[in-house]
Design a protein that fits this description.
alpha/beta, Rossmann fold, 2 domains, 4-stranded mixed β-sheet, 17 helices, MeTfrase_dom, transferase, SAM-dependent_MTases_sf, CMAS
């Protein structure tokens, strides 16, 4: 077979109903497609067998993670050209793959049986290849978003090695979008984000802060060191907690900061003056979100503030048809869910919060993700040694596609400031609260 690329191009155009926008390089060394375009490298026929046995997004994702598919050249341009075909809204949180699913449906259409036979011929004989080992197995241990199941989901994503996260995130160890100004580098932008959160929460010496989903401890450390607070950080990741405790001890702040491996539903020692939830609520789930907001409301003192920093998806025309992204669920955030920002605001209000400010910062996340991808690619051999080739490929695909999703307004991210306003109605906010952006 010396013309696999030409046959693949024709097959893709038949199934997708549109010219294929990338050049294809096949396992037999052949190439076909627009000159100068990024190259979709199909390195092994197994990639086609994966799609044949598991049509749609998950089959394609397995081929990518296994190293049987890749984009050569400009990764972002290649993925952008595929947008609307394979990754309609980007293979990031809440993304979808209508084109791939449409191609899968076409394989079952009697009118395209010839294309189906061609795919079988190109794929070659064989049983379905086993999924790459990085794929999350079906989570056990309780209903969706029960404490035990949440621990397993968090462990799949976060307990892959602190050194790997340090390579990707940089010294700040902040795993949420930075807050950029002209000329800033990643470290400065992350420091500015942490400081913005502290100012929105009006932290003062002696304030009691709870960080729900504290990660590796950057926010509680910054708040204790720069604002003199007493802080508690909770996480379900034992590896994160170990790193945070060591870091805090090295900074001499162990007497003011406590790190717990604890579920948000198990925090016993409110009230707090302020609560931060930065990039954690995506793990809560829509069915549990009202209860989650109620727990945080109950942990705040009257007049206390909540800063909820959360990725948002765009509303679906029919909300009942929303499906968790198959690639994200299998390889990145098992059981993760995104909600439109309006739904999040409504759930917070139902729990008793007064929502006082919503700041949309999606462009900031696109910039942050591009920096993380650049760090990963720059130190790729070491990243592969730290985790595995498949895990590193998961991260490269996830972060690059997510950057495009933010840039193209397919998903967003918002900081929502809410107050547990006392019965008298005094929120404690200044008349012009956006002054915090000027500090």
């Amino acid at each position: 077979m010396a013309d696999a690329a030409r046959r693949l191009t024709a097959l893709a155009e038949e199934l997708l109903g549109t010219p294929f926008p990338l050049r294809i390089r096949a396992w037999d060394g052949s190439e076909d497609g627009p000159p100068g375009a990024p190259v979709l490298s199909v390195r092994h026929r197994r990639a086609l067998r994966r799609f044949l046995w598991c049509p749609g997004e998950l089959g394609l994702a397995r081929a990518w993670v296994a190293g049987e598919l890749d984009i050569l050249g400009d990764l972002y341009e290649g993925m952008d050209r595929l947008s609307g075909l394979f990754w309609e809204r980007g293979a990031g949180p809440g993304g979808g793959v209508r084109g791939a699913l449409g191609a899968a449906a076409a394989l079952r259409d009697p009118r395209t049986r010839a294309a189906a036979r061609e795919l079988v011929t190109l794929a070659g004989p064989g049983l379905p290849p086993p999924p790459p080992r990085e794929e999350a197995r079906r989570l056990r241990g309780g209903p969706l978003h029960s404490p035990r199941r949440d621990r397993r989901a968090v462990s799949h994503h976060y307990d892959v090695g602190n050194d790997f996260y340090a390579l990707v995130l940089g010294p700040s160890m902040v795993y949420s979008c930075a807050y950029w100004t002209e000329g800033a580098d990643l470290e400065a932008a992350q420091r500015d984000k942490l400081d913005l959160v502290c100012r929105k929460l009006a932290l003062r010496p002696g304030s009691r802060l709870l960080d729900v989903g504290c990660g590796w401890g950057a926010l509680v450390l910054h708040a204790a060191r720069e604002y003199g607070v007493r802080a508690v950080g909770i996480t379900l990741s034992s590896e994160q907690a170990a790193h945070a405790r060591k870091w805090i001890a090295e900074e001499g702040l162990a007497d003011r900061v406590e790190i717990r491996v604890q579920d948000y539903r198990e925090v016993p020692d409110g009230p707090y003056d302020a609560i931060a939830s930065i990039g954690m609520a995506e793990h809560v789930g829509s069915a549990r979100y009202r209860a989650y907001a109620g727990v945080l409301h109950g942990l705040l003192r009257p007049g206390g503030r909540l800063l909820n920093h959360q990725i948002a998806r765009r509303p679906e025309p029919d909300e009942e048809e929303y499906r968790i992204d198959a690639f994200i669920d299998a390889y990145v955030f098992p059981d993760g869910e995104l909600a439109p920002v309006g739904s999040t605001v409504a759930r917070l209000e139902e729990a008793g919060f007064e929502v006082r400010d919503v700041e949309a910062i999606r462009e900031h996340y696109a910039l942050t993700l591009r920096q993380w991808v650049a760090r990963l690619e720059r130190d790729w051999p070491r990243a592969v040694r730290m985790v595995s080739p498949g895990r590193a490929r998961v991260w490269r695909l996830y972060m690059a596609a997510s950057a495009l999703s933010f840039e193209r307004n397919r998903i967003g991210v918002n900081q929502i400031l809410a107050v547990r306003t006392p019965e008298g109605g005094t929120s404690g906010l200044p008349l012009r609260p956006r002054a915090w952006t000027e500090a």
